[in-house]
Design brief:
The complex is a heterodimer of chains A (600) and B (379).
Chain A lengths: L2 E5 L2 E6 L5 E7 L13 H11 L7 E6 L4 E7 L1 H16 L6 H14 L4 H7 L19 H11 L5 E6 L31 E5 L4 E8 L2 H21 L6 E8 L3 E8 L6 H16 L5 H15 L4 H14 L7 H9 L3 H13 L2 E5 L10 E2 H4 L10 E4 L2 E8 L3 E5 L4 E5 L3 E6 L5 E5 L4 E4 L1 H4 L3 H10 L5 E3 L11 H4 L47 H28 L5 H35 L1
Parallel strand pairs in A: 2-6, 7-11, 7-12, 17-20
Antiparallel strand pairs in A: 1-2, 3-5, 3-6, 4-5, 8-10, 8-11, 9-10, 13-14, 14-15, 15-16, 17-18, 18-19
Helix pairs in contact in A: 1-2, 1-3, 1-5, 6-7, 6-8, 6-11, 7-11, 8-10, 16-17
Chain B lengths: L81 H11 L3 H9 L4 H11 L5 H10 L4 H19 L9 H24 L4 H13 L4 H14 L4 H11 L7 H14 L8 H12 L3 H9 L1 H13 L12 H14 L3 H11 L5 H4 L5 H17 L1
Helix pairs in contact in B: 1-2, 4-5, 5-6, 5-7, 6-7, 7-8, 7-9, 8-9, 9-10, 11-13, 11-14, 14-15, 15-17
The chains are: A alpha+beta (600), B mainly alpha (379).
Chain lengths: 600, 379
């Protein structure tokens, strides 16, 4: 039984528990509410708000998801009061002197976070798609941005408290600014209807389908898990882990995902079996036994002693989304009412707009899925003089007054300034324009022959709030005109023609111009001067013995009182010869080191 | 149109129009039995699964001019098939209900595959698209469309080794196979037990160079719903051969298992003969002679023939023509002329291109071997 009350105007849900008191203060704000330049700001607020707690002797945590930020605690009623009071105090008065430190901590944490590339492809560089982007703008967030964000979103009106325990602990006050309840962001669609795939560095196969939210979708998620487990693990023996997930996307939709790991030799068998299972479910072959077992599982979960307490966080989510709090009986009734036809309809919906994430280089066109970048709805290209890339005359950049286009025989990508989610800007002039639909265009000035004025025009076209200034690149990573020259593509590299140039953004950075479904880094340019190895060895062979010989002669001359000045002059002159060799060695080494950086 | 080349001899690939070859304009349409051979092994890196190049000479059943036909007691059961003729007639008349009914009436999935192969040999994409437009949920129509796309794509690729295929040919070939697989996925989503569609997908997996694991998954689905499905076994055997990045050991093990599990009198025994013919392909004339003289090779082929065409309870069904043709050749190669003559007599002049095209011009080779075997057998 879940009871509803209020604490300082904040809706509060209470359910009994056999364990220690647990409580959570949840706000309707998350990554999906941010913009690309502000990506990570909610997480930063969460970290700052918890900083003053330091090393408490009770369990507490903070989490930031796509749509909620959650502060939770377990301990005695006094500890719960202390924690929640502290969180509210932290939120209203963030320890902004900690800003720099917390940014570094977040960047470290981000390195371990996997980006939701499927959401990024499906929704673009906005709302739910932001869960697929790195937090590039974190470094340039100012103290007033962060406190402003906290004041706007972490408000009394936008919060729900839940308590697993007997009652609201005595003395609990939640001082927060007033503010409105924020509706869930509406999920944007970056792709037209149809199935698409993307490739990235992964060992598993992941599917993602967008369906109507509700009991049928929840049952489908579990039915899909059972079906894939049977086909992939029990029958095929291709996979060890087969997992499915259900994630809310806005008021009306949910993403159903399925992930299967595998051995590289069985990789396309996992794709084949997964696609066949999805297609078969979509065609209505839903096992009624599976549905019955899923329903039984739900019933069992909801009859556990602490089931109501366990449901508190999800009910808090529902309440924040403006939905009524349902009893366990309501939930079970909804699940029980799900007919096989409704599950099949959900399966069919997920099949119609399904996305597949597979490993780099994997061929999947046979499944009927198309590469996402060719599948995207085309944006009208901008007009202007095309500038061919130095390394590929068929690839041309167009800088227009209203945006930037990159033309290639297969695809023309366009980012219009009025629909530019962010412009990444490096001090060396490199730019990367990211459209709201996720289209990414990397602009290397040396590749397209852009001068500072042209780069300046591009930068000025984008609203200053959308420009993200990136830290300087390692000088060795900045391409020069020679890097793109014909010499850099003489066919000896075996990596083929550089497709999109090296993305200035490292891991997690969108390469954008790779293959039709590619998210992997595109082929880089060939390292300049690889054949110099032979010359280098030759110089060493000449320089080392000659130097040793001259050194010996010099030492002998020093020890010989009879050596005359003519001998000394001859020695000094002869020393010039190995000196030239050594100079050559040093130059070649530097040349090669730069080449390796390119290749890497 | 000239006679097709021997793919392994580096003949140019067949230049089929990319899409929708109109059946009435197809040279083979005048000879309904041409191209009716089921997917089998081939000297080249890739055998067109069915769309065997149309022949310029009179096809099976017609005596070649200048070569007298031996009088025989008439063909063995299944060599001539009124059912198959009716199916071909229905296809030629664009009569979908009759075509569908004719295929569905065949008793086994393998015989239905023989029929599908016969009617998909003509690259007739337009016809199956029009059928699907009228019957969008029909898994058999989807299977025939998928099979036709596969055949058309393979014809673009040509039958030669991979290095004889141009980049453009390869791209078009892959594109056809992608479309084929997508429509077959759709067919199987509606009718997962449609073994014929699974069997076609085994060949698609080979053309797409998917992993052995995926090819075998498709094969296992096929035989799960139609045990001992020979069409699927012949296709997977190709995938397991060294020419498709497999190994002789894997292929031999597969054939042993299939043959051991097949019921008595079943045509699956032909897999043994197929494997020996595949072995023969990489050998010179002298090596071939030596190979077929080996006692273990003779024993294997003879044992297979005794379980197959020489057995009184042999029931090859619509596989009869291809199985008798294949055994006629391998028995001739081990100089078991009486057995070979038995097969030739069972055929009563009904030749198929395979396996004779392994040796040269099929009709010439057929007549050459037949006359010699009948002569030797009479001694």
């Amino acid at each position: 039984m879940i009871r509803q009350t209020e604490v300082d105007g904040i809706p509060t849900l209470i359910a009994r528990t056999d364990g220690p008191m647990t409580a959570g203060l949840m706000f309707r704000v998350g990554m999906a509410d941010e913009t690309l330049p502000l990506c990570g700001i909610t997480h930063l607020v969460e970290h700052l708000a918890l900083h003053r707690h330091g090393l408490a002797d009770y369990h507490y945590n903070g989490t930031t998801s796509a749509t909620e930020t959650h502060f939770l605690v377990q301990g005695s009623p006094e500890q719960v009061v202390a924690y929640l009071t502290g969180v509210c105090a932290g939120l209203t008065n963030l320890p902004l002197e900690r800003l720099q430190t917390e940014k570094s901590i977040l960047e470290t944490e981000a390195n371990g976070r996997s980006l939701n590339l499927l959401a990024r492809v499906r929704h673009g560089a906005r709302d739910y798609g932001l869960t697929g982007y790195p937090t590039w703008g974190l470094a340039q967030l100012r103290p007033e941005d962060v406190q402003g964000w906290a004041s706007a979103w972490f408000t009394r009106g936008n919060a729900v408290l839940w308590i697993a325990g007997d009652d609201v602990p005595g003395g609990l006050r939640l001082h927060l600014p007033d503010g409105p309840r924020r509706p869930l962001p509406v999920p944007s669609q970056a792709l037209p209807e149809g199935r698409a795939y993307l490739t990235t560095q992964t060992d598993s196969v992941t599917f993602d389908g967008l369906v109507g939210r509700g009991a049928a979708a929840m049952v489908y998620t579990e039915v899909l898990q059972r079906r894939l487990f049977r086909d992939l693990r029990l029958e095929g023996g291709y996979s060890y882990t087969v997992a499915t997930g259900y994630e809310r996307r806005g008021e009306h939709a949910a993403a159903v995902t399925a992930m299967a790991d595998t051995h590289p030799d069985c990789y396309d068998a996992v794709i084949g079996a997964t696609v066949d299972a999805l297609a078969s479910l979509a065609a209505g072959h839903v096992d009624e036994g599976d549905i019955a077992s899923v329903k039984a599982q739900f019933r069992e979960n909801h009859s556990l002693p602490d089931a109501d307490a366990g449901r508190l966080p999800s009910m808090a989510c529902e309440l924040l989304a403006g939905r009524p709090v349902r009893t366990a009986a309501d939930l079970l009734a909804e699940i029980s009412a799900v007919e096989p036809a409704a599950v099949a309809a959900t399966a069919a919906r997920s099949w119609q707009n399904g996305l597949l994430k597979v490993r780099d280089g994997q061929e999947v066109e046979w499944t009927g899925f198309t590469g996402f970048s060719t599948h995207r709805a085309p944006v009208p290209p901008v007009s202007g003089a095309p500038r061919p890339a130095r390394d590929d005359a068929e690839r041309r950049l167009v800088l227009g007054s209203d945006g930037v286009s990159l033309q290639s025989p297969a695809l023309t990508s366009t980012v219009r300034f009025d629909a530019c989610a962010a412009l990444l800007a490096w001090p060396d002039g490199a730019r990367q324009a990211i459209g709201a639909d996720g289209t990414t265009i990397a602009v290397e000035p040396t590749r397209f022959g852009l001068d500072a004025a042209a780069v300046g025009t591009l930068t000025a076209g984008v609203h200053p709030a959308r420009v993200i200034w990136m830290p300087p690149r390692d000088p060795g990573e900045i391409p020069t005109e020679q890097s793109w020259g014909p010499a850099a593509d003489d066919g000896r590299s075996g990596r083929g023609r550089g497709k999109g140039g090296r993305s200035p953004v490292g891991s997690g950075g969108p390469a954008g111009n790779g293959g039709p479904g590619g998210y992997g880094a595109p082929a880089g340019v060939r390292p300049p001067g690889t054949p110099s190895l032979v010359g280098l060895i030759g110089l060493y062979v000449l320089a080392v013995p000659l130097s040793l010989f001259l050194l010996l002669m010099t030492l002998l001359s020093i020890g010989d009182p009879e050596s005359d000045s003519a001998l000394w002059v001859a020695l000094v002159v002869t020393w010039f010869v190995p000196a030239f060799f050594w100079l050559g060695i040093v130059l070649l080494h530097r040349h090669r080191r730069r080449g390796r950086r390119w290749a890497g | 149109m000239s006679a097709p080349g021997h793919p392994a001899a580096g003949y140019p690939a067949q230049a089929y129009p990319a899409a929708g070859y109109p059946a009435h304009a197809h040279p083979a349409a005048a000879y309904p039995t041409a191209g009716a051979y089921p997917p089998q092994g081939h000297p080249g890196a890739s055998h067109p699964p069915a769309g065997y190049p149309p022949q310029a000479y009179p096809a099976a059943g017609h005596p070649a001019p200048g070569y007298p036909v031996q009088p025989t007691a008439g063909p063995a059961p299944g060599v001539m098939s009124p059912e198959l003729d009716r199916i071909r007639t229905a296809h030629a008349a664009r009569d979908w209900p009759a075509l569908r009914q004719g295929i569905q009436a065949l008793p086994t999935a393998d015989e239905r595959m023989v029929a599908c192969t016969a009617v998909c040999a003509h690259g007739d994409e337009e016809f199956y698209r029009s059928v699907l437009a009228a019957h969008p949920q029909d898994p058999l129509a989807m299977t025939l469309l998928g099979y036709t796309l596969l055949v058309t794509g393979w014809a673009i690729r040509g039958g030669g080794w991979a290095n004889t295929v141009s980049r453009e040919q390869f791209a078009a070939f892959q594109e056809y196979l992608h479309r084929a697989d997508a429509v077959l996925i759709d067919a199987l989503a509606r009718q997962p037990q449609l073994a014929e569609a699974w069997a076609v997908r085994v060949t698609v997996a080979r053309g797409l160079q998917l992993s052995p694991a995926e090819a075998r998954r498709r094969y296992q689905q096929a035989v799960r719903h139609a045990p001992h499905l020979l069409a699927a076994q012949l296709s997977l055997l190709q995938k397991l051969l060294p020419k498709w990045s497999g190994s002789w050991e894997a292929a031999e093990e597969f054939v042993r298992t299939c043959v051991a599990e097949a019921p008595p009198g079943a045509p699956n025994i032909v897999l043994v003969a197929e494997l020996h013919l595949e072995r023969m392909l990489g050998l010179s004339a002298a090596q071939r002679k030596e190979y077929f003289a080996r006692p273990e090779v003779r024993t294997q082929i003879l044992d297979a023939a005794r379980r197959g065409p020489l057995a009184p309870d042999f029931r090859p069904g619509l596989r009869a023509k291809s199985v008798y043709n294949t055994f006629a050749l391998v028995l001739a190669l081990i100089e078991e002329y009486a057995g070979a003559a038995h097969c030739f007599q069972a055929l009563a002049g009904q030749m198929s291109d395979a396996p004779w095209d392994y040796l040269g011009q099929p009709m010439e080779q057929f007549v050459l071997y037949r006359d010699r075997c009948l002569r030797e057998a009479r001694r």
